[in-house]
Amino acid sequence: MNTSIKREIVIEPGSASKQYWRDLWFYRELFYFLAWRDILVRYKQTVIGIAWSIVRPVITMIIFTLVFGKLAKLPSGGVPYPILVFAGLLPWQFFSASLTASSNSLVANANMISKVYFPRIIVPASRIIVNLVDFVISILILALLMVWYKFVPDWRIMSIPVFLTLAMFASLGCSLWLGALNVKYRDISHLIPFIVQLGLYVSPVGFSSSIVPEKWRLLYSLNPMVGVIDGFRWAIIGDNVYFYLPGVLISLALTFVVFISGLKHFRKTERTFADYI
Amino acid sequence: MNAISVENLGKKYLIRHQKEPSELSDVLGVSARRIVKRLNPFVSSKRSAYREDFWALRNVCFNILEGERVGIIGRNGSGKSTLLKILSRITEPTEGRARIRGRVASLLEVGTGFHPELTGRENIYLNGAILGMSKSEIKKRFDEIVSFAEIEKFLDTPVKRYSSGMYVRLAFAVAAHLEPEILMVDEVLAVGDVQFQKKCLGKMGEIGQGSRTILFVSHNMAAISKLCNRSIWLDLGKVKQVGDTESVISMYLSQGESTSGLAKCNLGNKDIAIIREVGTLDSNGSFQANLAVNKDFYIWIKCTIMQKLSMAQIAVTVLSINGTAVFVSTHTDTKEEEQVLLPGTYTAKVRIPANFLNVGMYTLNVRIFGQLDTHMRASHANAFQVLTFRVEETGSVASRYSDSRGGVVTPILEWEIQQHPN
Which of its termini does chain B have fewer beta carbons within 10 Å around, N or C? Predict the structure, then answer.
């Protein structure tokens, strides 16, 4: 070890440490371990355990189908309503759970942050990985639904990873902003449940975005989750749903902007996390 | 080659002061008061909270060579922990610069990131990763860690069911098996039972034997003097002294603690005898509440005698902190003839030899005995538990292999040893 060339770190005020990405690579296992910890701990001391990951989306789907499909009689474009709802729930539940957990993760791990150095971005990012487990479980439920309704998806289903990636970036981007702000202003932790609750109504989860009037379409697409959810519907249900390309592109661009600006803001403030947390 | 070089390092914090809320606002609530203020055009909206800069560290400079073991000492709030936090990149300095060469591991706390729901085995991996170990490194040292922590039987029990001792042992064991080039440790040895503390200290010493650079913050002077060859004394965010550990520690002890080593008491019978002041003096003759175990020190008494006392005695009792008398000594012990004290003011001091009182806290009782003309001999001035002092470990013979060997006294005695043929 002595013979190897030792790396030198310079600690200065405002020095956006040049080794950041190298450090991130060095700590890649921590990323894995934190995700692993959160998965292991998640359903400790619960009775039904992992079944929670099944119960939640299924119940939500049933209620949405009843309220939007049966009571409000919203159009489904010939697709079984439960599948329409589930195709929207899949990305939404992933997004909302990731956003909540990830934005609060820094404060939840305050002790680690004030006692150990590591690239802080590992904490919110690993929380998003945890929610992938739920996502995979939901995909399996969807597959069962498709079997039940004898619904055969086409080749577009292969594009799910693309939209999933988009959802990951959207949730990570928002979480970087909210998480970093939450370290200093705990108002954020009160704001997040509100955002998630409201987001459910302004995103096309329980209904198809085709019911939104044409002239409001562009404005509606400013919600980045609209593009993601529409993408999922397109991939799962296929042609039957109205696929609004400009909307998806706007969502894509917006997600990109939120992610990059979030990353920048996070990098700028993370050096002071230990002082404020 | 410098492993760590620090130039003009400074760290500023903003402290917010807030005026005490008045009784009225207690009733109304602070926010209500604010609204009232805002609505009332006659009250200026000047905020009652104001901010103040506080420099936790300022103009700190030093260099640490590769392989050096350096102790950092100082009172609470002197900036030790802030320094370590900056050097381990947890927080950023406000000014100045530090250069660090080599892989750093810092240990500001044991068991950081431990999750109570996870088992011992799982926590070893998790904590190792948090401290910067790779999975293969942890795997390689896993058995060592487990046997060092002595938790073999409970490896698959969630740590929330561990006793606090087991918890700490496991946490330290993981940390002790880090293999960085530079190790920074903050007061983590102050945990666990004495037995385990010794083991930790031994392990630290072992780590220090290699070419590793160690930065060690502690209040435990014995640990510092055992582990570190050089020390830095921080005071109010500034470097007060840098040098070899022994001289820095003795300087630190000679003006460190809060009590001055002098008590003004004025106790006694006003018409006969009064004990004015009692103090402890270090080997240099200055008042000092913290005394080195391996140096002589003095107990010093100032008294005023109003009436002639025959068969007089100034007596000192040294008590251990739990109240047991360790010994009594009087100023007549070495005198054959009767002592008479005439009216006047006296100072007396008695030398307590080096390596006599063991490390610990002691209190003093002082009394003045004598006979007035035809009366019975009696005590005329009593000053009970008038002064507390501390005997500190500064690298005595006794501390060579352990922290403290126990016992009230710690004399160095003559030994003879012979080997006999079988």
Answer: C
